[in-house]
Amino acid sequence: MAIVSCGAGGSSGGSQSVLLGLSTDTKPTSYTLGAVGLYVETDTDTFYRWDGNAWQSISTGGATAWGTIGGVLSNQIDLSDALAGKSSTSHTHPAVDISDSTATGRSLITAATQGAARDAIALGDSATKNVGTLSTNVAAGDAVSTHEAAADPHTGYQRESEKAAASGYASLDASTLVPIAQVPTGTSSTTVCIGNDGRLSDARTPTTHATSHKSAGSDVIKLDELASPTDVTTLNVSTTLHGLFPKLPGGTTNFYREDGTWTTPPGGSQAFPIGAVFIAVVSTNPATLLGYGTWSAIAAGRVLIGLDSGDTDFDLVEETGGAKTVTSTGTVSQPTFTGGSNTTSVNSGAAVKIGTSASSAAPTAHTHTVTPTGTVSQPTYTGNATSVVQPYFVVYMWKRTA
Fold this sequence. Notes:
Blueprint lengths: L1 E5 L9 E4 L16 E6 L4 E5 L4 E4 L18 H8 L18 H7 L4 H7 L89 H4 L41 E2 L5 E2 L13 E4 L5 H5 L4 E3 L27 E7 L10 E5 L5 E2 L6 E2 L4 E5 L9 E8 L8 E5 L2
Antiparallel strand pairs: 1-2, 1-3, 3-4, 4-5, 6-7, 8-16, 9-16, 10-15, 11-14, 12-13
Helix pairs in contact: 2-3
């Protein structure tokens, strides 16, 4: 066995080293003699090439068997360059290379003829295989060529030959109407009457049928189904006959009396004439409640009282007066006073000075008589306020002013 190393440098373009006489045909685990190493097993005539990491077998045909390439492609400089320089070439993939396809799908792709394609999808190898009338068959495009066939498969359809024929079906003309020739005309209950039939003239007398329109009849006529009436009075209600309500006069002031006449209510058309008083327990203006008139609220906090021409307090309409309370007042009768005479005596005595006099004198005996007189003031009396409100019930009162 020999190991030959060819490295860079040297006069001959590269150094050469030979290892001979190895005891066994076992490749060394590493090679450090040069960048490129060749190893020959002499007993098997097998060549190996050192790729920098491991020995790779070289096939006898001269092409290098790379085997497993360690590392990433960018580290394989010679291989990367070789692949980068390789140009794209046209190529094909057989159906068997489609790994996710089914056998049926591949057979359809590779079918050489239409028959083979139909056979691949179980339609048979001919145009009529699997064609039939069963639920598992397909129908041929020309399976029904005419509706007049004795064994018509479309039994639910009318045949073309039955159009406008006896026991067939009617046809339509250019105006989408059934031709009169196909309509059964006549005078029986199973035929129709044509437009110029004499029985349709105005002079024809209808047969007796009034009972059918009466109550419980087969064709009762309802009042709300009749045409608009004319201005006749023969059906009006009266004091002797039942009938229809008379025509309304169109006003807003009259009412219908039981004697059959329209009459204005006594007292005018409005129950509260101008000047009337309206009493209510709701605050709504009577103009809204009654629908007429102009009204003003009156007598707030007061009671109503009838007019009394003989009493000056109550002899004028809309006169007001009175009070809720009364305070008692008055004058006490004039008192009188009469005084009696009284006499006093003065005895003589020692001299006394009187006033600012410088002299004094002794009084002599004498008497004084005094009679009091005067006037007593006139007394007055004021009492407490006393309520005179009568029992009451509060309401709203309005007077119509217009």
